[in-house]
Amino acid sequence: MTTCHAAFCGSLDYFSWFGMFSAFRTERDYLVQTLQSPAFRDYPIHYLYMTTGNFDFALPNQVSGYEMLLQTEPRLQWGENTTFDTFPMRYHSIGNWHLALYNFLQKIF
Questions:
Q1: CA distance 49 to 51
Q2: For residue range 44-81, what is the model confidence (pLDDT) as tens digits?
Q3: DSSP string of 36-55?
Q4: What are the Cα distances from residue 22, in Å, to 26, 37, 99, 100?
Q5: Phi, psi of 108 (to 5 degrees)
Q6: pLDDT, tens digit, for every residue of 21-49?
Q7: What does the pLDDT read at residue 44?
Q8: Quick check: 60 and 20 in contact, CB under 8 A?
Q9: From edge to edge, which strands make up the β-sheet containing 82-87?
Q10: H helix intervals, the chain
Q11: Cα Rg for the chain, rounded, in angstroms?
């Protein structure tokens, strides 16, 4: 959630590659107010990688949040500069986030 609120929605002038692991509790209005504000709407979003585990307690919210994000933000195109992975047999835990970090680093380097 920190990545979403502090970096993705508030620092597009500094960052354009994002990894969000097991998190998404952001309202559509907030995304529009920040991402599409005059301050940030012209900055590129090079890549957004989101992940979760299939046993993560927040999985439904993460999936619906990601779908809402794709509908809200035209700079994100699934399969081009954003993906969402669900890891089998994983929870809301550091073991899941280690896999997510490994995969994310493969995408950005």
A1: 7
A2: 999 999 999 999 998 999 999 999 999 999 999 999 99
A3: TSTTTTTS---EEEEEEETT
A4: 13, 26, 12, 9
A5: -100, -10
A6: 987 778 889 888 999 999 999 999 999 99
A7: 96
A8: no
A9: 17-21, 47-53, 82-87
A10: 2, 28-35, 59-72, 94-108
A11: 13
